[in-house]
Amino acid sequence: MKHIKGLYIIHTVFILAALLVLIYVFKNMSTGPVIVGSYSDEELALYKRIWHDMTLARNAENDHMLRILLIFWGVVAVSGYALLTLIYFRLVRPAQDMQKFSSEIAGGNLDIPLPVRRNNLFGSFTESFDMMREQLKASREQEIRAKKANRDLVAELSHDLKTPVATIGAGCEVLEAQMMRKRSSASPDGSVAFSEEELSSVTEKIKMLSDKASTINTLVENVFRATLDDMEEVRMDISEYDSAVLLDHIKSMKDFGNIIIDNDIPECLVCIDKLRMKQVIDNIIGNSKKYAGTDIHVSFGKEEIIDKSGRSVRFVSVTIKDNGPGVRPEDLPVISEKYYRGKNTGEKQGYGLGLYIVRTYMERQKGGVEFYNDNGFVVKLLVRMV
Predict the structure, then answer these.
(1) Residue 157 falls within a domain, yes or no?
(2) Residue 170 and residue 97 in one domain
(3) Half-sphere exposure of 298 (CA within 13 A, CB side)
(4) In sequence order, what are the residues at sequence separation of 6 or more whose Cβ sits closer than 8 angstroms to the Cβ of residue 227?
(5) Overall pTM > 0.70
(6) Cβ pair 188, 275 in contact under 8 A
(7) Over the stretch 281-314, which tens digit does the pLDDT of each residue have?
(8) What is the C-alpha separation between 314 and 367, in angstroms, rounded?
(9) Which domain, by its residues, includes 196?
(10) Which one of 208, 235, 262 terminates a domain?
């Protein structure tokens, strides 16, 4: 734009200078009568009259010439501005559009359209360039969808692997305890069902399976952690289910320890993502088994809460409680933050993700969660009712 403004200024200065020169030349063209020698009064009067007539004719001719030159000057001035304007619209503005468009594309903005003007020099080129933008945008959207699908797949596979692996680990612990009891006890007739060597071999194999299960669980957690930063984009498939689904999820965790159901769950419909809700329950009960190692009590109820808009919202409450040492009071406000681990976790392995996942998934299902101590650690889930 600077260049075209410069050309406008140069043209204007040139045209004005030409006009001033033209006016100056015509202003100094008229001359008075020149009288040489001596004439009689009659001859001098005749001479002056002839000179006057010639001056009028010459002035009329000069005025006519001035009008022609002024018209020519005006045509040149207007033609110059028209030419510069044409250059601007046919060359400069399309080039500016291309420059702005390429800057936006380079900055990642693929939503800005490029004006396609077929009557300029870049007409066909801008059309091709805009088609390229559309293809880039489609490719980016496809890439985003593919990444999202990949994250969903990793999250689902991580959960699907974690649960059976944890079950294998819990089963190995039970078998190991049973083998230890068999080793220390004999049958009523004084004989033993297995020799010491056989018991040692079986115990060693059980311990190996338990170690392998722990290794696989760690690897699965590593993979899940790698995708955790995009958890807000994990797909949620919220539908209406019978509340008995929650009870089924809890009962399916019986291999994690002694789970005691204190009362019946209210019969109603709840709005949940079935898979994400199972992940929530898995994480809570898995944490209780890891850090408390006691019986786990589960109770149900109904609650009604007034939201910010003044509407009454009904929830099914699911309270999961262990009888362990609980969480330190200073840790409770931040216990569900990403990667945070309480000070009393000891040497237990973990990344501080379990309760963060619980809170995130419950909020995305338009429910809620509370953490507190009551002779043990308590997690209270609020599951939205239909």
Answers:
(1) yes
(2) no
(3) 22
(4) 151, 154, 155
(5) no
(6) no
(7) 988 988 888 888 889 999 999 999 988 888 899 9
(8) 10
(9) 137-235
(10) 235
